[in-house]
Structures are given as C-alpha cells and as structure tokens.
Amino acid sequence: MRAPAAEPVGQGETARGRIDRPAAPSDRVRLPAALGQRFLVFVDTEEEFDWYAPRRRDATSTRAVAALPEAHRRLSGFGIAPTYLVDYPVARSAEAVALLRPLMEAGECAIGAQLHPWVNPPHEEELTASNSFAGNLPVELERAKLRALTECIAEGFGRAPLVYRAGRYGVGPHSAALLEEAGYRLDVSVRALFDYSDEGGPDFSRRDAFASWAGPAGLLMELPLTAAFTGFARRLGAPLYAAAGRAPRMRGLLARTGALERIALTPEGTPLSDALRAIRTLLDDDVRLLSISFHSPSVEPGHTPYVRDADDLRRFYGWWDGVLDCLARQGVEPIGADELIRAAWAARDVGLRLAMA
Q1: Dihedral (C-alpha) 268, 167, 40, 287: value to the nearest 10 degrees?
Q2: Count of beta carbons in the 10 Å neighbourhood of residue 140
Q3: For residues 186 and 168, what is the distance between their CA atoms, to the nearest angstrom?
Q4: 167, 137 in Cβ contact below 8 A?
Q5: Which of 260, 261, 268, 259 is nearest to 317 (CA)?
Q6: How far apart, in Å, do the first and last CA atoms of the chain sit?
C-alpha cells in the first residue's frame, strides 16, 4: 500500500507521534502471526573519523566502503538482505555508489539514509557536541539537511530512501514529522534502553525493543536497535540500571553477580556469549523483530575502536557466525527492510478493515 502524503511540519506540529519519547502501548506494530520472529541487519555506512576527537567537517574519507563486499558476501550467504544506511560523504562517493547500487538493484540490499549533521550540508550550525545530534538543530536546518541527504541518495541510487537513522541516534522533537514529510516509512534511530542526555542527546532509557507507529499522521514505523536487560533482577530494569549508574562501578558489579546487565545486539562491544543470552531473553519475551547493527568502517581494521587489527576482525566475523547459527536454530529468519514495511502496512490495512466492519 502507498501511504498518504504527510502534511508539512510547522513549529506547532510536533507533539503527536514523537520518536524521542517512549511509544504508547496502543501504537505497537501488529504483525501477522505467520511472519514469526524475524531479524534485520542495518549497516551505518559512513566516513571514517577519529571516534575520540571532536567532529570535523573535512573528515570525509570513505575508503573502508571498499571492504564491504566481503561482509556483504558473508551476510548474504545466510539469506540476509542488509540495509546500508548511507550518509552524505558515502552518497557523494562515485566509488561507493558503484559498489552498492548493483546490490540494491539485484534485491540483495536496501539503501537507507543516515544523517551525520557535521558533514551534511547546509553547514550553518556551530560544531558542538550538542549539534552532532540532528534533532537539536532548528527545525528548518534539520529539514534542509534531511532534504540534501535524501536528494543526494535519490540521485546516486535512482531511488528515494524509505529508511532513516539519525547519526548518534540523534532524533529530536521535530524528527518524526520531518521524516513523514520527506516520505520515509521506517526509522531506526532509537537505541532501546540507552541514554545520551549527558551529551545533550535523547534519552531512550525507557524505550523497549518493540516496533511502534510514529509521526503526526502515524505513517512512520519506528524499529529500535535491539537491546535487552538480562539477569535475575531484570524486571527492575531501567530504574535499577539508572540508579546503578550513579554509583561508581555498580553496573559492573550487577553484571558480574548476574543480577542485571544491559546487552545490545551488535558485534561492536558485545561479546558473543552476551549476545546469545540477550537473544534467548528477547525471544522468550516474544519480541517479534530483532534489529542488529554495526558501522561500515569496522569491516576494515584500524577505523573503529571495535576492530583495531586482524584478530579483532576475525572475532567480528566469528560473532556473526555464532549469532546467525543461534537464530537459525531458533527458527528466526531474516527479513529485509522493504519486506518489513510491506508486511506492516498490509497488516495495518487488514486491522483497519476489521475495525470498520
């Protein structure tokens, strides 16, 4: 189904359907039971930069994209059609487009958008930590940056993107409305259970892993990056974890004693054993969609703190082997972003027809 167009967002049209706040239970996405439990893979396809230094406008090298074919080959061997969330430097790179566009045209992947405001025109804002979260920018500047990125991707790939992620998970009060307005139908900016407010970013600590409908007109599906609390005190979850963060080393003590641990589904910084424990917990909780993510520079050693050398890269791919084997044994199959959007809208249409009958 083609969704109706969204109305342009103005200064007063931001309250409903925000994605920087927890979703209402009534907004949860209802998928057909026959779809079962599925997982998706998202790749933050971006420039290389120093993760520990202030952000710079001139750090726009995309050489690591050339190493993506090996990662893609391994993922596609498991039937995975990843979504490459390309940012402005990648979308502007003829080499990157030449590598990724044939995969998209063959149906082996989807191309989405990722907004890194510090390297995405127009460059009107001061380079500060707060402004690295696009949702903190004035609404017109956030809109202009989103438009520039969307148009650049559409020009390079011959297709407008439907999937969006804010760099640094930096959505704000206007983001959902702006995404609806620009024609996006799936947002993956929320990082469940994480809080970036100490850096001026959003607080997702009360956001669970379930997908929900968002946007002023309800046209946008929000699929958080998957994370779970594990341990015998996990039902205390967010309040206990937040309280533990105010005491030195308390979170580490909770994890070591098996009481409470927050685990994100990513090969970057999450040991395989922890990821497998989180997956078992999530499946037991009947989370229908698992979202797994990593950064494209991690597929070449030396660009991220997660993959510094060849040994780290072997562990990176070993993580995937273990996680994908676990998911296969549990009957959890991959699904592409485009297929998910179609399934969610089809189920929504059926629900509306039944409600009106």
Answers
A1: 90
A2: 12
A3: 17
A4: no
A5: 268
A6: 20
Closest CA to 190 of 178, 203, 174, 173: 203
Q: Which one, of 24, 20, 56, 23, lies nearest residue 201 by Cα?
A: 20
Region 288-305 average pLDDT: 98
Domain map (residue ranges) of the chain: 36-51+60-226+288-356
**Residue 331 CB partners (closer than 8 Å, separation 6+):** 36, 37
In the beta sheet, which residues pair with residue 295? 44
pLDDT reading at 353 higher than 90: no
Rounded to whole angstroms, the maximal C-alpha distance in the chain is 60
83 phi, psi to nearest 5 deg = -105, 120
pLDDT tens across 89-111, in order?
A: 999 999 999 999 999 999 999 99
How far apart, in whole angstroms, are the C-alpha atoms of residue 218 and residue 210? 16
CA 335/CA 289 separation, integer angstroms: 9
CB 172 within 8 A of CB 133: yes
**Is residue 157 within a helix (H) or strand (E), and if so which, with residue range?**
helix 139-157
Query: Which fold does the domain 36-51+60-226+288-356 belong to in CATH?
Result: TIM Barrel (3.20.20)
Separation of alpha carbons 192 and 202, rounded Å: 11
The CA distance from 146 to 138, in Å, is: 12
Percent of the chain with pLDDT over 90: 93
How far apart, in whole angstroms, are the C-alpha atoms of residue 315 and residue 355?
50
- Cα separation of 103 and 106, whole Å? 5
Q: Which two tokens stand for residue 177?
A: 């409305």
Residues 152/157/162/164 CA torsion (nearest 10 deg)? -50
